[in-house]
Amino acid sequence: MGYSRLNVVIRADASVHIGMGHRVRSEVLAEAFSEQGAEVCFVVHASCADFSKEGDFVFGSESEWHELAHQADILVLDHYGYDAAAINALFQLNPNLLVLDDNNNRGDFNCRWLLNPLSLRYSETVQFPLTGGQCAQLRPQFSKYRAVNPIGQQKLLLTFGGTDPLELTLPFIKSLFVKGFPTEFLLIMVGSGVQNAKEIQDYCRQHHMECQIGVNQVSELMAQSRFAISAAGGTLFELACMGVPTHFIQVADNQKDALAEHSALGWCSATDFTGCLPKQRVSLIDKVVESVLKTWQTDLTQRSQLARECVDGLGAWRVVETVLASRLVK
Fold this sequence. Notes:
Number of domains: 2
Largest sheet: 7 strands, parallel
CATH topology of the largest domain: Rossmann fold
Number of strands: 13
Structural class: alpha/beta
Number of helices: 12
Helix content: 25-40%
Strand order of the largest sheet: 3-2-1-4-5-6-7
CATH superfamily of the largest domain: Glycogen Phosphorylase B
Oligomer: single chain
CATH class of the largest domain: Alpha Beta
Low-confidence stretches: none
CATH architecture of the largest domain: 3-Layer(aba) Sandwich
Mean pLDDT: 94
Strand content: 15-25%
Shape: globular
């Protein structure tokens, strides 16, 4: 059944400071809506215009996009900048509101649907909570490539997301090299928004390391990976889906709950870099690398299986099916 008359408006930003995670997962949701025939429009603040795309509605003040919000059949919000009062104001504009959340730390607010890939509980003001790893928003490539034969998983993947705001990639590469990790097993994935990407690329060429920059088919690289060192955020759910045990680096406070929940499941571990001064990072990076090198020598089969059980990559389909099956409020 198609939904060609439905108009979906998504409010999400991306920047070096914010990162790419909100935009990426909202685009997954947008694609799933589009596949059902809906028309989708992104709304982006002018301060994040450098990361906007053709067709986005770019605004300077909140009131500029409220008419779009009011007219939408379905309004989607994926933004930490909106507190409970601001979310309630959007709900008054449009009761068919889907909020994407990660931490449940904004107090009670009203919305029709609530999407959170963590298993958190919300108040009754959320009419339809959609929570847990099976609701994680992953691109279709992940459910496809998770079926790849794991015999090909031989690499140690190093990735710090689309922007790597703390510039951790190069220090980790250097630490792994100094400590003697075999370069033929190292796979470095650098996001398109990483500011020192060329410096990383030059170092990797000099030391004969594989470095991929601005990769779209992320799942193909993860399918080659036996273990990973990664920033937290949306990448956590991608690595879980692909069955890649990981040591995560926490770089923001809002990643704490996800790391706590998934570390307890046994497939990953984490180190907190928030509040760590630049001078302290070198020694902390070395400690992480030493731990990872010990883990690399162990049998990772059970951890990989535990990871795969958390996320199957079909979350976008589940969420869109639930939303479209609902009776929209006129």
